[in-house]
């Protein structure tokens, strides 16, 4: 396929595909799927070899959020049956983090529900970051606390945070359909604040919320333009009790196409398979390792993932290796605060963003089965007396 040869060439040169090309990846047929995976896999191996970075989530504060994000099990008034608890103490968070690190994770992601942290919350999280860093040499710590106010990113950086996560989630055009209590611009602002403070910016998307292919391409192009170092790709977990509970839109094949598109648009950026991996990729999870170079180990914030041991076995069986703390995730040209001229290039970014909308045929309609049997609310690890899954 000329399309795939072109995309591989561009990926190896870190050149932005056109929007038409990105849309065409999403519109490929199931017959072409393995060719798509093989092509994006070449780009993945060129920049990241066969390494898989493992990240471990610690939910510092669960539920009780005043915001109304329609995809989220922690949203205001959601009747989802999730664990609800307030801030973990630094030693509790550090204990949870240690389990993930012992399981092979190199990054710990400290997440708290809420619109954004107060200054007191930043103090608490700073203490937690310091405790985790003191007790675990070489660990990377990412904070994910919502919208940041002026000066908070700098304080987190000063406490030792390496990265800050705040997802754009979907396109600017549809953001208002999924959340009313804050805006797309608010989210962009926080990613920019993190970046400006010298934190590695982690920002991603959620697919499967009923968005169009154009929305997906828009958000991925926006993430590249924001110069995120890592891009988590979530597949919606349609929690009962949320407005999106009936949105079962994803097939394993669709998930692979989405990951391939993200890899072509973000060739040298950490592409992370995030929530919904087990639920939507199911037995095709190992193929996704040819596209993404990073996954979460064990459980998610409010739902359970497959056993951490199963994650490790899958990586080994698929011929990949867990990235160690002495291996640097990003290619050399992206280290040390941004990628310089390529991703930030006005020319490359604007020319693609300004290209005409593709007139590619829509992918054949698929009606996936609702797999509610695979959604398990987290009942172990942080905030419980039970051992974490790592
Ligand atoms: S995504 Fe974050 S801000 Fe939105 S409802 Fe969930 S916890 Fe609250």
Automatic annotation (TrEMBL):
Co-factor(s): [2Fe-2S] cluster; [4Fe-4S] cluster
Catalytic reaction equation(s): (4R,5S)-dethiobiotin + (sulfur carrier)-SH + 2 reduced [2Fe-2S]-[ferredoxin] + 2 S-adenosyl-L-methionine = (sulfur carrier)-H + biotin + 2 5'-deoxyadenosine + 2 L-methionine + 2 oxidized [2Fe-2S]-[ferredoxin]
Binding-site residues, [2Fe-2S] cluster: 109, 142, 202, 272
PROSITE patterns: RADICAL_SAM
TM regions (residue ranges): none
Keyword annotations from UniProtKB, A to Z: 2Fe-2S, 4Fe-4S, Biotin biosynthesis, Iron, Iron-sulfur, Metal-binding, S-adenosyl-L-methionine, Transferase
This enzyme's EC code(s): 2.8.1.6
UniProt key word Ribosomal protein: no
UniProt xrefs under SUPFAM superfamilies: Radical SAM enzymes
Amino-acid positions noted as binding [4Fe-4S] cluster in the UniProt annotation, renumbered to this chain: 65, 69, 72
Cofactor remark from the record: Binds 1 [2Fe-2S] cluster. The cluster is coordinated with 3 cysteines and 1 arginine. Binds 1 [4Fe-4S] cluster. The cluster is coordinated with 3 cysteines and an exchangeable S-adenosyl-L-methionine.
A Pfam family assignment: BATS
Metabolic or biological pathway: Cofactor biosynthesis; biotin biosynthesis; biotin from 7,8-diaminononanoate: step 2/2
Radical SAM core domain span: 47-277
Gene3D superfamilies: Aldolase class I
Keyword Flavoprotein found: no
Cross-referenced SMART domains: BATS (SM00876), Elp3 (SM00729)
Subunit structure as annotated in this protein's UniProt entry: Homodimer.
Entry function: Catalyzes the conversion of dethiobiotin (DTB) to biotin by the insertion of a sulfur atom into dethiobiotin via a radical-based mechanism.
Family: Belongs to the radical SAM superfamily. Biotin synthase family.
Matching HAMAP family: BioB
Protein name: Biotin synthase
Biological source species: Streptomyces lasiicapitis
């Amino acid at each position: 396929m000329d399309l795939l040869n072109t995309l591989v060439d561009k990926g190896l040169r870190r050149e932005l595909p056109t929007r038409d090309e990105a849309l065409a990846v999403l519109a490929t047929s199931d017959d072409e799927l393995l060719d798509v995976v093989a092509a994006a896999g070449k780009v993945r191996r060129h920049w990241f070899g066969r390494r898989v970075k493992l990240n471990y989530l610690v939910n510092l504060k669960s539920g009780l959020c005043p915001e109304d994000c329609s995809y989220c099990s922690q949203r205001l008034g959601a009747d989802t049956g999730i664990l609800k608890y307030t801030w973990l103490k630094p030693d509790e968070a550090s204990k949870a983090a240690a389990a993930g690190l012992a399981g092979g994770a190199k990054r710990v992601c400290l997440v708290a529900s809420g619109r954004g942290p107060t200054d007191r919350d930043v103090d608490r999280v700073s203490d937690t970051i310091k405790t985790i860093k003191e007790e675990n040499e070489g660990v990377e710590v990412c904070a994910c606390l919502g919208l940041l106010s002026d000066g908070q990113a700098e304080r987190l950086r000063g406490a030792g945070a390496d990265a800050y996560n705040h997802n754009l989630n979907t396109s600017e055009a549809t953001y208002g359909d999924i959340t009313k209590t804050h805006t797309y611009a608010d989210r962009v602002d926080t990613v920019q604040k993190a970046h400006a403070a010298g934190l590695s910016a982690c920002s991603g998307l959620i697919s499967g919320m009923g968005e169009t292919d154009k929305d997906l391409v828009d958000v991925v192009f926006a993430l590249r333009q924001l110069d995120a170092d890592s891009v988590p790709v979530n597949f919606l977990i349609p929690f009962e009790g949320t407005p999106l509970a009936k949105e079962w839109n994803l097939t394993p094949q669709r998930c692979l196409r989405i990951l391939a598109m993200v890899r072509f648009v973000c060739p040298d950026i950490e592409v992370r398979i995030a929530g919904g991996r087990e639920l939507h990729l199911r037995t095709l999870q190992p193929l996704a390792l040819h596209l993404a170079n990073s996954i979460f180990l064990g459980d998610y914030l409010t739902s359970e993932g497959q056993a951490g041991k199963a994650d490790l076995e899958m990586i080994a069986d698929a011929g990949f290796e867990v990235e160690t703390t002495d291996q640097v995730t990003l290619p050399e040209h992206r280290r040390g605060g941004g990628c310089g001229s390529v991703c930030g290039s006005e020319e490359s970014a604007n020319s693609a963003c300004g290209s005409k909308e593709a007139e590619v045929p829509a992918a054949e309609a698929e009606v996936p089965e609702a797999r509610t049997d695979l959604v398990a609310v987290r009942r172990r690890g942080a905030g419980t007396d039970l051992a974490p899954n790592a």
